[in-house]
Amino acid sequence: xxxxxxxASLRQEFPTEALPVESGRLGETLAALSPxxxxxxxxxxxxxFDLRHLSTITGQDTGSDIELLYHFWGGQGLTLRTLLPxxxxxxxxxxxxxxxxxxxxxxxxxxxxxxxxxxxxxxxLLLAEDWRGEAPLRQDASLRPPxxxxxxxxxxxxxxTAAQGRERMVIPIGPQHPALKEPLSFLLxxxxxxxxxxxxxxxxxxxxxxxxxxxxxxxxxxxLLERICGICSxxxxxxxxxxxxxxxxxxxxPRARYLRTLLCxxxxxxxxxxxxxxxxxxxxxxTIFMYAWRDREITLDIMEELxxxxxxxxxNVIGGVRTNMDxxxxxxxxxxxxELERQIVKFSGMLEHDSSFRGRTLDVGDLxxxxxRRYCVVGPMARxxxxxxxxxxxxxxxxYDRLLFxxxxxxxxxxxxxxxxxxxxILESLRLCRQVLKDLxxxxxxxxxxxxxxxxxxxxxAESPRGELIYYIRSDGSDKPARVKVRTPSLTxxxxxxxxxxxxxIADVPAVISGMDLCISCADR
Amino acid sequence: MTWEKIVRWxxxxxxxxxxxxxxxxxxxxxxxxxxLTPRYDVERLGILxxxxxxxxxxxxxxxxxxxxSRDRLRRIYEQMPAPRWVIAVGSCGCSGGVFHGAYNVLGGxxxxxxxxxxxxxxxxxxxxxxxxxxxxxxxxx
Lengths: 525, 141
Known about the structure:
The complex is a heterodimer. By secondary structure, chain A is α+β, with helices and mostly antiparallel strands. Chain A has helices at about 5-15, 40-50, 100-110, 160, 210-215, 220-225, 235-250, 255-280, 285-305, 325-350, 355-360, 370-375, 380-385, 390-395, 415-440, 490-495, 495-500, 510-515, 520-525, and strands spanning about 20-25, 30, 55-60, 65-75, 75-85, 90, 115, 170-175, 185-190, 195-200, 315, 320, 455-465, 465-475, 480-485. Chain A is built from 19 helices and 15 strands. Chain A has a 5-stranded mixed β-sheet with strand order 1-2-5-4-3. A 3-stranded antiparallel β-sheet of chain A has the order 8-9-10. In chain A, a hairpin with a 3-residue loop joins strand 3 and strand 4 (about 65-75). In chain A, helix 7 (about 235-250) packs antiparallel against helix 8 (about 255-280). The longest helix of chain A has 29 residues, at about 255-280. By secondary structure, chain B is an alpha/beta fold. Chain B is built from 5 helices and 7 strands, in the order αβαβββαβαββα. Chain B has helices spanning about 5-15, 25-35, 70-80, 90-95, 125-140; strands at about 15-20, 50, 60, 65, 85-90, 105, 115-120. In chain B, helix 2 links the parallel strand 1 (about 15-20) and strand 2. The longest helix of chain B has 15 residues, at about 125-140. The radius of gyration of chain B is 15 Å and the shape is globular. The model of chain B has no long low-confidence stretch (mean pLDDT about 85). The interface between A and B is large, with 58 and 47 residues.
C-alpha cells in the first residue's frame, strides 16, 4: 500500500476537507477528518485500496472533545482521526464495512459514551452488568472502586430470552469451567447436539488497566502493563518501551535489542507449547499435554535464569534491558534449546500421525481467508487461514531485520492448520533464538532515560505470540502518560467465535475454544 | 477407629481443589496448571484438580476480585460442600496487588470470601502453591 496515493485520493474525494497529515513516529501516518466524512473515507480505503485491516479504534478525552483514532494497517500504519463534541458524541458505525470493528466500537462506546449509529449489537463489552453511569475514560469520571456492600449484579437475564423455539435449549457455560483456566461465559443455543447460536460474555477479568496507567508514572507502568497478561508479559513491556523510547527520541542499544528479541522468542515458544498442551488436554490427549508442559519448563528455566522470573520477567526498562548473560550462559542455553528442539520434533511427529488428533481437529472451527479478513484477525489464527502477515517481517522491530526466519502459513483455516502453524513457529523461534545467541553484540544494556516524556503520541506495534499487539501512547509532557490504549490480539479472535461455533457439534466446543489460543486477561485488560 | 477419624484422614490424603480466576493476569493460573504436569506432579500428594465446585474441598482463587466476577465467586463458594477452604493465590489475590485502586477492582479475595491461607508472589512459584495447600492441611488436621 502506498500511503501517498491513498492520501491523494482522499484529498480528491473530499475537496472540502483540510486533511492535515502528519508523519508520526515509528512509521505511522496520521490524517485528520471531520466525523461526517470518516465513514465515506473508510469506504474508500476498503473498496478502492482493499485496506481492510482495522487494528483498533482508540478513543480519548482530550479535555474539550472526544477524539477517535482509527488505526489501519496495510504494510504501513495509517491512522484516521476525528473529533467529536463532548456533549453529543456520535458517529456512524463501521460494522457494515468492517465487521471486525464491532468489539472496538463497543469498547469505545462504554468507555467514553460515544454512540455508534447503526451498530448491530451495542451491548457493553467489558464493564460489569451492575455498572451504572460514568464513562471510565472520560476525564471527569470519579471512578470509585467497588465496595463490599454493592448490590449483586444481574448476571443471567439472557438465558430466558435466548431460547425461543420449542426444539431449542440454552446451555450456559462459564465463567468457571473446565475448558479454560480463564473466566469467560457463553450461552450456547442448541438443537439436539448441534449449536445454532452462541452468545459470548467477557469482562470478568476487566481491571481497568488503561485508566490505571494514567495515574501512574511511565516507570511504574512497566510493572502494571506486564501484568496485563501472564503468558505474554514480555511483549507487552517491549511494545510499550518501544513506544515510550520513540517519544523520548531514544533507541535501545543493540545488545538490549537482541536480548529483548531472545526473550520475545522464548516467550513465543512457551506460549505456543502452553497452548498446545491446553488444546491436547481439552480433546483428551493427555500425553501431549504432559509432554508439551514438561518441555515448556526448559524455556521457563532459561527465562528465569536470565531475568529472575518464570512468568513475569521485568526484563525491560525504558531505554534498554536490565538482564545480561555471559559466555557460559550462552553455551548452556544453546544446549538446552537443542534438547527442546529434539523433544518438539519428536512429539510433533506423534501429533501429525495420530489419527484421533486429526479426527478431532480437521475441519473443526473453520475460518476462511475471507472471514479472517472481514474480522481483522491477526497472528497464527490468520496465518492458518492463509493470510500472510507477520509484523516481525512486515515492519521489523528490535533485531528482526537482521535475523532470518520463515513466516509459516497454511490454507485450511481449521484447528489442524492452527496446530501446524504454531508447532512450525516454535521451530522457527528456536532458529531465531540460536541466531540471537550467535550474533549477540557487545555493548551497554540500556541508555539513561529521563522520567518526563515530551508531548507527543505514538502508535507502537509488535508481533506477540498471538499476533499483532498495538499500543497507542500519548504524552502531555509530564511523567505520567495522558492515554495508553492497548489492543491485544485475543480480542480479534474472540469476535470470530460465533462464526466458528455455528453448526458444530457440542462435543467440539472445547476444541474450538482452546484451538483459538484465547487469552482472556489480555482481552479484558 | 471412629468414623470422624476416617473422614479426617481421607480429607488429609485427598485434598481436591477447584481453581477460579476472579480477574487475574493468568500468571498464577498457569502456575496452578503447571502443578499437574510432570515436574511438580501434585497428584502424588493426593491433590486433584476438579472441574466442578461440588466436588471440591479447596478453592484456589487467583487474582483481584473484579466487579463482574464478585457474585460469581460467591456463588462458586456457596456451591462447594462444607467443610470448605479458600486459598488466595498470588499478590493480587492477597491484597489486590498491582491493581489496587482500579475502578473495577474490589481488592483481595478476602473482601468477598473468608480466606484460610494466603500465598504471596507475583506470580507465585508452583512450589509456593504446593506449600500453601500443605499448610492448609496442617491447619485443618
